[in-house]
Amino acid sequence: MRNYILVLFLGLSTLLQAQQRLSGIVMNIQNQPLPAVSVYISELHKGTTTNVSGKFSFVNLPKGELKLRFVLVGYGTQNITVSQLQKDEILQVTMDETLFEMDEVIVSTAFSKIQSQNVMKVSHESIQSLQEKGTATLIEGLATIPGVSQVSTGTSIGKPVIRGLSGNRVLVYSQGVRIENQQFGDEHGLGLNDSGVESVEVIKGPASLLYGSDALGGVLYFNPEKFADAHSFKANFSQKIFSNTLGSNTSLGLKTSTENWKYLVRGNFSTHSDYTVPNGDRVTNTRYNESDFKTGIGYSNSNFSSVFRYNYNKLDLGIPENGIDAQSTSKTTDFPRQGIANHLLSMNSVIYLGSSKLDLDLGYISNNRREFEESPTAILDMQLNTFNFNAKYHLPKIGAIESIVGVQGMRQTNTNSGEEFLIPDAKTNDFGVFGTANYEWKSSVIQGGLRYDNRKIKTEEHGDIGDEGYFKAINRSFDSFNASLGYKTDLATDLILRINLASGFRAPNLAELSSNGVHEGTYRYEIGNADLKNEQNIQTDLNIEYKNSHFEFFVNGFYNHINNFIYINPTGATLEDNLVFEYIQDNAKLYGGEAGLHFHPHPLDWLHFETSFETVTGKKQNNDYLPMIPANNWNNTVRAEFKIKDWLKDGFATLSYNATFNQKNVSGFETASSGYNLMNLGFGGKVALGKTIFRMNINGNNIFNKSYIAHLSRLKTDGIPNMGRNIVLGVNFDL
After folding, report:
1. What 3-state class would DSSP assign to 225?
2. Mean pLDDT rounded to a whole number for the chain
3. From the CA atom positions of the chain, what is the Rg in Å?
4. What is the pLDDT of residues 663-701, one digit of tens each?
5. In this structure, are residues 331 and 271 in contact, taking their beta carbons and an 8 Å threshold?
6. pLDDT tens digits, 202-252
7. Lowest mean pLDDT among 99-108, 139-148, 340-349, 722-731
8. Is residue 303 left, alpha or beta, with left meaning phi > 0 and alpha meaning psi from -120 to 50?
């Protein structure tokens, strides 16, 4: 027996120590080596940089398929796939100069293809590009992406809207796991900070095949920052200040890596006073403070890769209740206010099994939401704990066919400790199983899949029958089958066509099923409906895009039909001196799209012109309009890129003109909104002062101090304008 154990141990040791090596050289089209090229294998969280001879190398790699990303300023991004890594693979990579951003690997879709190979069109934006626009919060930056807008309460609370759908209809992923933070409420914000986030991917349309319930309208997928290159240590410090809110944002990050181990830690603190409207008044109690802490540890070898991350986010939010009242520049929130604490733990692992692999994502989210009205004792105290898992098995390829089968699940508990209840104590359990396949030939790809889900919701009875705040016990089970089918092909050189047909679903949330009381901030008495059915939709998407070295354009169109769409409707009665609203269902449709172009003429390669237009219309079955549909928007940007001697590199200057149109297509209890035009300026780049090198940007947003009210502002009913002129100065040091 001892001999068998010894043989097994030696065999296992040999397997674990077996090292696949990948090396290569990166050159330009003149066959000159390119130093300082960033080379990254995202699945293994391993990175390196080419030396002065353009050479790079990785060791201790798995035998399966690997995707490498090569990035160099002025050369865009190059993506290389190694189908079956040999023991000592050598690559020769050629990078061509370009001023356009090249293909990005899209992580949020099933097969992590580069965009040009992807069946579904996904919007990808780096957080750096959003920050260079001078936005104060992450959600403000997201709202600059065509097809994305926000429901806002001042500057502190913002909820994403994708093509007219928001709340529980938009799923948010961070660190590879779904975020659950009572997102049913209009006054419940995103709950994420852009510190320590590298990029965001936006799926516009149903993504229930991959993500289950609540991905009816789309997905926001946030990719965390990378670890440091092997055998390196990096420190980063950034500081931003905001003139309008007298605010500041400070971030410090440290990270290091060995060949196998990786570590990082980052802290961030933001503080803002009440925001100022164009006439100089401050909107009382829109101040807020945010603390954010992120850390991560990773390990990878030739058999598996695993990363553990933790994020703690604490928000202290003032709730504007009296409009423009007492004037103050204090950053200490007044009553009423919200206190929110989020803990997010994730474990993301990839296990390599020869020609197949297993992806396993585990997540735990603890969300505590408290509201204080007149004293330090919370009158509302909700605790939401969520455990979720997502396992995907990538089967061995059969010719050109790639396939995945997977299971997902979620267990969630909601408990109340305060005097007031918005929703009852409840337990929610999800389970889903799915399969999807991708077939690629020449320049065409077809992808399809099927999925089954079950959600069980069980609530506890609370209160006295007939009184405000009474919740009867609910025990419901919701089932849904969904499918998707997509096709992508090259109609001509550089011209891509995508057609997608997908279904999605959303089980009603606790507020829709059980509300019975005054909804703070909306001045309405809301009554839930325990008999609500699944929302079930089917959406058709069409995308055409063209890209060459100096010109690109895209056109996206969609039609979204939703059965049993849930919305809130006035009954005409009053309770507790508030109008009564009830949750009801009707079939609905949303349609519209986005179009845009990007042009930089030769030989003026330093000059860029970008324009985009977005529109969405939402109607009920009787052709009445749906509530909370964003106004049409047209955005234009002129960008110049330059270098000033040796002290400013990668310099840029931007002038943006944003036109938001009238929104007269409103529901029965909404008011129409007037259009408005805003001008923004930006300037920045990499500054070298002696041996000190840092990135800086200065932005002027709403530079003409225009007074306007966004249609999706929750302060609109009180006639309170959005933010006036705001000057933002940011610096970022890599120490």
Report:
1. coil
2. 88
3. 26
4. 999 987 789 999 999 999 999 999 988 888 899 999 999
5. yes
6. 999 888 888 988 888 899 999 999 999 888 999 999 999 999 999 999 999
7. 99-108
8. alpha
Domains and CATH numbers, the chain: 15-98 (2.60.40.1120), 177-402+424-734 (2.40.170.20)
Q: Is the pLDDT of residue 6 over 50?
A: no
CA-to-CA dists, residue 452 to 210, 446, 477, 505, angstroms: 11, 21, 13, 11
- Contact (CB, 8 A) for 84 and 15: no
For the whole model, what pTM was predicted?
0.91
Report yes or no: 106 and 114 within 8 Å, Cβ to Cβ: yes
- Give the three-class secondary structure for 428: strand
Q: Cα(597)–Cα(593) distance, rounded to whole angstroms?
A: 14
CA angle at residue 63 from 57 to 264, to 5 degrees? Answer: 55
Using one digit for the tens of pLDDT, what is the confidence trace for 389-431?
999 999 999 988 999 999 999 999 999 998 888 889 999 999 9
How many C-beta neighbours within 10 Å does residue 263 have? 16
Q: Are 654 and 644 in contact (CB under 8 A)?
A: no
Burial 301-331 (b: 16+ CB within 10 A, else e): bbebbbbbbbbbbbbbbbbbeeebeeeeeeb
pLDDT at residue 521 is higher than 70: no
Q: Is 8 exposed, middle or buried (0-12, 13-18, 19+ CB in 10 A)?
A: exposed
Q: Which residue has the tokens 């933002």?
A: 728
